[in-house]
Design a protein that fits this description.
This protein has 396 residues and is of the alpha+beta class. It folds into 2 domains: 3-276 and 331-395, no CATH class; 277-330, no CATH class. Helix content is 24%, strand content 23%. The protein contains 10 helices and 18 strands. The chain has helices at 3-12, 15-26, 46-63, 68-71, 120-133, 149-160, 182-192, 229-232, 257-261, 313-318, and strands at 42-44, 91-100, 106-114, 140-141, 169-173, 195-198, 203-205, 208-213, 216-220, 222-225, 251-253, 278-280, 294-298, 325-329, 345-353, 362-371, 388-390, 392-395. The strands form 5 sheets. A 5-stranded antiparallel β-sheet has the order 3-2-15-16-17. Strands 6-5-10-11 form a 4-stranded parallel β-sheet, with helices on one face. A hairpin with a 2-residue loop joins strand 7 (203-205) and strand 8 (208-213). The chain is globular. It starts with a helix and ends with a strand.
């Protein structure tokens, strides 16, 4: 996007430098980096960054509206009834595609958002290593609103651990050592001093939760939640596990309800030049004649599962539960990142943190992804290079 920086990076690129870079990333926790890391970061000009941040503030206006919780109550599945919901989501992520509008200009378009964590700890290490590898100029930073690696990690710790003993705070996941994002769990342990605990290892006694470490039973007071309930319910042979719907005496960061409230479900509530027109399928009075310009998405899925890109009337007719689907106008990803072969498309995920006492969340950091397929994601980019996870550096 910044032509001179792109040309300089590409001219200086070599497979040997990339191999050394990947060696540094892998050495964070050998064997744990289980997703592809792209050869290049993204360099973002000030104007484009402002458009993304302005769009986020428009969306946040909707989220902080007193009516938001009542408007999103239907988003929470009937079989999920987790106690102690907060009035806000500690973490929000906004995914913007770098797109091309009708005039051929680059602009951000919101693809998805989630009231859920992402690779927060890993991305701090990743950014530092990438900054050195790419020789990023001093007037570019991956952090936002004046945050630095030090203040960002301090804020992360304040939100997740706060004034508790780290021993009483856990990162919760199902089979964490099998997850593709497990490197972030291990980096989180490094940064916060907390343990990663599998749901199958939690012990319930009365209204309290415990885990075992060093032959001791340790009380859980706060859960840094990385457990996606949709994923949990697809697991087989879990054996006997705690009833997550029991009113446990524990605080969730973020609370699982916000995974559903701030999600694809929220998109039809937003009106912004940088949010594609989106409609609940069951509320559409007349199906658009130009269906080929829309994407059909299930509300309650993740990682792009179930998305129909080339929509037909037959696809609409085959939906048995239209209240659980949205129809979203397509965006045109720009072939914006010059690479040695075909250009790559890009998405930028902005991290927003919401500390107790703040009226609104703040933008703090990002991760980005490059793709040469129809969609962003591993399954659409097999056997391709200059694709995968990366980080954006914003002009200051």
């Amino acid at each position: 996007m910044q032509k001179e920086l792109r040309q300089r990076f590409n001219a200086n690129f070599s497979e040997a430098k990339y191999k050394a870079y990947m060696s540094q990333l892998n050495n964070l926790h050998p064997g744990a980096l289980d997703f592809r890391n792209a050869e290049t970061p993204i360099f973002i000009p000030k104007g484009f960054t402002k458009k993304m941040l302005d769009a986020c503030e428009e969306i946040i206006d909707v989220i902080v509206d007193p009516r938001f919780k009542s408007l999103t109550e239907r988003a929470i599945p009937a079989d999920i009834n987790i106690a102690n919901e907060k009035d806000y989501s500690d973490f929000i992520a906004f995914d913007f595609g770098i797109c091309e509008n009708g005039e051929g200009e680059l602009e951000p378009q919101l693809i998805e958002m989630q009231g859920f964590p992402t690779l927060f700890a890993f991305q701090a290490f990743h950014t530092a290593i990438t900054c050195s590898y790419a020789e990023v100029p001093d007037n570019y930073s991956a952090y936002l609103n004046g945050y630095t690696e030090e203040s960002y990690l301090r804020l992360l710790k304040d939100i997740i651990v706060g004034d508790l003993d780290p021993a009483n705070v856990i990162l919760l996941e199902i089979y964490p050592d099998q997850q593709k994002t497990r490197i972030d769990f291990y980096c989180t342990e490094d940064v916060l001093g907390i343990k990663t605990v599998c749901l199958t290892k939690l012990i319930g006694e009365g209204d309290q939760l415990f885990y075992e470490a060093d032959d001791k039973k340790i009380l859980v007071k706060r859960i840094y939640n990385r457990l996606i309930f949709d994923d949990l319910y697809q697991q087989e042979n879990l054996g006997e596990i705690i009833d997550v719907n029991h009113p446990w005496d524990v605080e969730w960061v973020p609370h699982p309800n916000w995974f559903y409230r701030i999600s694809k479900f929220t998109l039809p509530l937003i009106r912004s030049a940088y949010v594609p027109a989106t409609f609940y399928l069951d509320e559409i009075k007349e199906i658009p004649a130009d269906l080929h310009n829309y994407v059909l998405k299930p509300l309650f899925s993740f990682a792009g599962m179930g998305v129909v890109i080339d929509v037909t009337q037959a696809d609409i007719d085959n939906v048995k539960d239209p209240q659980n689907w949205i129809l979203q106008r397509k965006v045109k990803y720009a072939d914006v990142i010059e690479t040695p072969d075909e250009p790559a498309k890009a998405e930028i995920r902005l991290f927003y943190f919401w500390k107790e006492g703040w009226a609104r969340p703040k933008a703090v950091h990002n991760l980005s992804r490059l793709s040469k397929g129809k969609m962003i994601g591993t399954r659409y980019n097999k056997d391709k290079t200059w694709v995968g996870g990366t980080v954006a550096f914003f002009e200051q």
